[in-house]
Amino acid sequence: WTGNVTFGGRQRNQLFITASEGVYVLDMNVKGAN
After folding, report:
1. What are phi and psi for residue 31, nearest 5 degrees?
2. For the residues 9-33, what does the mean pLDDT come to?
3. pTM for the full model?
4. How far apart are CA 12 and CA 29, in angstroms?
């Protein structure tokens, strides 16, 4: 299951996902909102 999802990184273009199996980071082609 997914615990939390948030954008981060220097340009806010990385998606951080916490799940029961670990923490995942996805590089995105879009930036997160301020």
Report:
1. -105, 150
2. 93
3. 0.78
4. 10
